[in-house]
Amino acid sequence: MREVGFIGIGNMGQPMVLNLLKAGFKVKVYNRTASKASEVVAAGAEQVNRPCDVITPGGIVVTMVANDQVLEVLVYSQDGIGDRLGTDGIHLSMSTVSPETSRKLAQYHQEKGSFYIASPVFGRPEAAAAQKLWILSSGNHVAKEKVKPVLEALGQRVFDLGEEPGNANVVKLGGNFMIMAAMEAMAETFNLAEKNGMDREMVAEVYSSTLFNCTVYNGYGSMIAKKMFEPAGFQLALGLKDCNLVLDEANNTKTPMPLANLVHNRLLSSTAKGRGNLDWSALTKLTNEEAGLE
Q1: What is the spatial distance between Cα 144 and Cα 146, in angstroms, rounded to a whole number?
Q2: 132 with 156: CB under 8 angstroms?
Q3: What is the Cα–Cα distance from 58 to 78, expressed in whole angstroms?
Q4: What b/e string do you get for 181-193 counting C-beta neighbours within 10 Å, with b at 16 or more?
Q5: pLDDT for 48-104, tens place per residue?
Q6: What DSSP string describes 188-255?
Q7: Which residue in 172, 227, 273, 285 is the catalytic one?
Q8: Helices 200-209 and 167-194, interaxial angle, to 10°?
Q9: Strands 46-47 and 115-118
Q10: 193-241 tens-digit pLDDT
Q11: Inter-residue contact 278 to 272 (CB < 8 Å)
């Protein structure tokens, strides 16, 4: 189990692979854009040409990709991992995808004799690099025990959310929605302070040092106060994707989420204005514009 396959060497995947290498794992990597794997290859990872080539039969394959569609292609395609993972192999899915996709893939893997564990994360690339991710995990309890050394090499804590494979995704999407709502609230409050002649950054420091001394307010509060949305740790277009997933699940379960509809409109309008490549905190530019402060 000290050999791991890893698919998806993006802003999050790259530091995660580097941490696995530091922890002594032998890692095979695949990325659609091969050049993005150059740094992890230089650090000791082995690069392969097809997703299925990362597999050690009966071993562990980690996926960290952009969306549900990419994940499904990686599992179901001819060169994918679904048919080749082998008996007792484990697909450790760390992407932010819908609960329904996780349930469907878990059923598919079960039919193939392998396991699917959903383990999305809270944390931006800098948290991944510092091995400070918070990991949400759901799926078969035996398989979760087997992947524990991998997860411990990537994060500061693993939250076990039971055996229902979609549970981790529900909690992840809920967390992302709460971040979006907090960003909107911060923008409105900082605008109110600025229009009363106060310094936005000073006001942000007050809140992040007192009532809201937490990761989201400390991290995004500074960005929103400064109106600085580059470089993007998490792109706005991906935030829109996640908000769509939140609303899909809300519709599926008949759960009213009026605030989610508000931030969805912020994200949708921002994307229409060509801001999809900015950090997702750039949804607050619309709030600033409406206040005459942009």
Answers
A1: 5
A2: yes
A3: 19
A4: bbbbbbbebbbeb
A5: 999 999 999 999 999 999 999 999 999 999 999 999 999 999 999 999 999 999 999
A6: HHHHHHHTTT--HHHHHHHHHHTTT-SHHHHHHHHHHHHT---S-SSBHHHHHHHHHHHHHHHHHTT-
A7: 172
A8: 130
A9: unpaired
A10: 999 999 999 999 999 999 999 999 999 999 999 999 999 999 999 999 9
A11: no
Tokens of 48: 């392969």
Closest alpha carbon to 285 in 214, 175, 183? 183
Q: Which residue has the tokens 């990362």?
A: 54
51 to each of 80, 90, 281, how far by Cα in Å? 5, 14, 33
Dihedral angle of Cα 4, 103, 165, 65, to the nearest 10 degrees:
40
% residues pLDDT > 70 (the chain): 100
Q: How far apart are CA 292 and CA 157, in angstroms?
A: 42
Q: Is 254 one of the annotated active-site residues of the chain?
A: no
Burial 202-239 (b: 16+ CB within 10 A, else e): ebbeebbeeebeeebbebbbbbbbebebeebbbbbbbb
CA distance 54 to 5: 5
Please state, in angstroms and rounded to a whole number, the distance separating the CA atoms of residues 116 and 107: 8
Dihedral over Cα of 165, 168, 171, 172: its sign: negative
